[in-house]
Task: structure prediction
Amino acid sequence: MAKPKKPKIRNRYSIGEWYGAGFESLTSTERFARAKTESETDAIIGADCPFQKNAKCNKKGGVCSLRQYQQVGDGPVSGVGPVITTCPQRFLESDTIFRWVGETLLQTKEPVVLSEIGFLDRLRPEESHDEDEDDSRDFIGRIDNVLVHPSREPMDWCALELQAVYFSGKSMANEFKMLAQGESEALPFPAKHRRPDWRSSGPKRLLPQLQTKVPTIRTWGKKLAVVIDEAFFGSLVGLDRERHLSNAEIAWFIVGYDPKPSGWTLVPREVVFTKLDASVKSLTGGIPLSKERFEEQLRFKLGKLKSA
Result:
């Protein structure tokens, strides 16, 4: 007697949160209305961002995060796994990270938060600045935020970088187009393939930021805080930790998202102290192969060429 076939399992990534609302919590009418608007315009809609104070969403499409969706056979579609942050503004919910970083690194839950602070200047050392010049000039590089203790003298502060995750594959426009075709009560299976791109987000984006900023910041006797989500942190390889903040150069603040009726809420998960070198090794993928294992790959590929 033939064994029954196991149902096919399909997995794809799509919208986790849309303009702050959990995709799975939206009604069919809400999904249709949002998709219709997105699919009919090439401009940024400019809806309010729920994670910032008095600010508009500046991300085309309004997708705050990704989530993986699964379908078993012809069964219903369901979300699986963690929410994955794709917009750095998502980290700003309720100012939680500012209080968390401030308390951990500056011993205050109410740090003064400064944004977009120039770090690399185009001027040569011998050139002078106008004392009245503000921060509007064209810096080569900036720090996302600097948190300052409200009362300490001399000034006490730490730098803060926010790193979301890029994705590769088909654009979200494909999802908007599918959703705009009509209302459906059932949660739809994603229209196209895409995935979180850890390599672009880590080694190609975050790593150069750390290598550029940490050496100078540590000579000033200060720390760099980096906020990432737990999915991103899970992609790091063999990160060596420091037991004490005093021995660290980087403090990784790892957030997660817990479910709530209308979607998801940001929650602190863990703080990890590291040195720059350990972070570089972790972001670039771990320990190099031995010469023997590397040459095994060469022999395997040479064999395939000969047999072709």
Notes: The two ends are 40 Å apart (CA to CA). The chain has seven helices and twelve strands.
